[in-house]
Amino acid sequence: MALDWKTCSEARLSRDVRFDGKFFIGVLTSGVYCRPICPARTAQERNVRYFPTAAAAAEAGFRPCLRCRPECSPGTPAWMGTSNTVSRALRLIDESALEDGGIEALAERLGIGSRHLRRLFLTHLGATPSAVAQTRRLQFAKKLIDETKLAMSEIAFAAGFGSVRRFNAAILKTYSRTPRQIRRLAHLKETQAENTYLFRLRFRPPYQWEMLLQYLKLRAIPGVEQVEGNVYRRSIALAGQHGSFEMSLDATGAALLARIQFTDPRALFQIVERIRNMFDLNADWHAIAARLATDRALGQRIRKAPGLRVPGCWDGFELAVRAILGQQVTVKGATTLAGRLVRAFGVPFTGVEGLTHLFPQPAALIEADLKSIGLPSARAETIRELARAVATGTIRFDGVIDTAAFMAKLCDVSGIGRWTAQYVAMRALREPDGFPAGDLGLLRGLGFESERELEQRSEAWRPWRAYAAMYVWNVPIEKTERVNRAAAAAVVGSRAEQRI
Which member of 85, 245, 308, 410 lies 3.0 to 4.6 Å from 260 by CB, making a disulfide possible if both were Cys? Predict the structure, then answer.
């Protein structure tokens, strides 16, 4: 949805929650910038300015509001309406790319000059790449001050500041208060156990938590993941260290609670970002629904279950292996095989009831006897070949700039075809247009006899075809079109892959 002055004004005056995080309001009289839902007294129109991102507001000289806490807003869907280059750059910044060489190195990875990259960011986001990264660091630091008992020195390094002095100076300049003064204002009541952190991660409602949880439950890898009641939990490994997290729905209904157990607070920023992606918390649901609801079959599903998200994953290699295990077998069968693989080749994990292992690293599967867990020879070799490619860096799931090139490399692995590549792009790369058009469930659910027909129909759903797939897979409706099952079966019989 394009945000013009009139739209922003109406959203601000009505405090419309649908626009939370989509733009920010600079108030000239107070010098702060706010979310559209800020409870403070509404400023007169002549005294406000509108910005597409928090970084743009900060660049214009406004400081964050301490009442509405802009750092707590849902993630800005900055990839909407931006150029492909800016979208790719934002993905790399999410993975801390600027820390590996600054704007020049980032621009080189994107194949453009640093000056051009700055111009693109200013055009689309209203701020430079450095300002975007700096604002994200400050916002995460503010969140740690408000929501944890971490020492200020630990917060400084967890948020990516090179020193405590720079951290203190940046906080004072931005908030006109020292970090300790901000903490006193937070009135933190709940105390967490050592190395345990609780974050409220907001989203734009509606959000189909129960439906997303059910999808993950059916595919949860025994020993690594667990869905119990309305809680999802899993073991994690990052930078050679082990931990876990669990997710539940906040009582307010507008946020997920993330309870993270990890020994190194410096990893918290990356863990939180991965969780946000895994649970698709930055999605602009109303923009997605506006496009998909024009299709009659999808419109019925959207009205039945508004707010369905596309689940991501913790680790791209893990998801790809899980997808290979699911070829030619049922979802339940693939889950059983995944559990055997983890028990045979995973790393033992303790500390959380129900979580017994970490998923094996690529190096552990290169020479693994995968036939011992009941895998056919061809599929076992596919996993070993993928593990070799990832271990040597031929295939990387982080720092992906060109999704099409990534999928081409993935398809070079024997036994991996277009379906698996699209499915991995959809969930591991967070590609909103990922769409395994040859999937039997999609063909049957929409009443098509061939992949080509479905591809043609799906052109109108771009760039949100991944969400369309989730709706067809998970929200059944009364069929208005009959599927020619014999033709659909013939299509599936010619493919080597099945939906997992």
Answer: 245
